[in-house]
């Protein structure tokens, strides 16, 4: 009779990445068929500190309209 030894395998640790949201990419003239960007250069969260604010204090749009940079 053969012996079977089971080992628990721990997953490799994931590298830590930081995410920044930079310039706004929202096209404010899409309804007119043009391209107009507001020039907001960096996402600034609105609201109290510690909360994951999803609205930009500078331009008022959602965080998803800002270009995401991972480093």
Automatic annotation (TrEMBL):
Location within or outside the cell: Cytoplasm
Record-annotated ZF-HD dimerization-type domain positions: 21-69
Pfam families: ZF-HD_dimer
Superkingdom of source: Eukaryota
Keyword Metal-binding: yes
Keyword ATP-binding in annotation: no
Keywords, in A-Z order: Cytoplasm, Metal-binding, Zinc, Zinc-finger
Major subcellular location class: cytoplasm
Alphabetical list of InterPro entries matching this protein: ZF_HD_homeobox_Cys/His_dimer
Protein name: ZF-HD dimerization-type domain-containing protein
Organism per entry: Hibiscus sabdariffa (roselle)
Lineage: Eukaryota, Viridiplantae, Streptophyta, Embryophyta, Tracheophyta
């Amino acid at each position: 009779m053969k012996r079977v030894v089971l080992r628990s395998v721990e997953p490799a640790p994931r590298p830590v990445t930081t995410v920044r949201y930079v310039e706004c990419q929202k096209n404010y003239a899409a309804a007119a068929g043009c391209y107009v960007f507001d020039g907001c250069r960096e996402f600034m969260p609105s609201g109290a500190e510690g909360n994951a604010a999803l609205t930009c204090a500078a331009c008022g749009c959602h965080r998803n309209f800002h270009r995401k940079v991972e480093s």
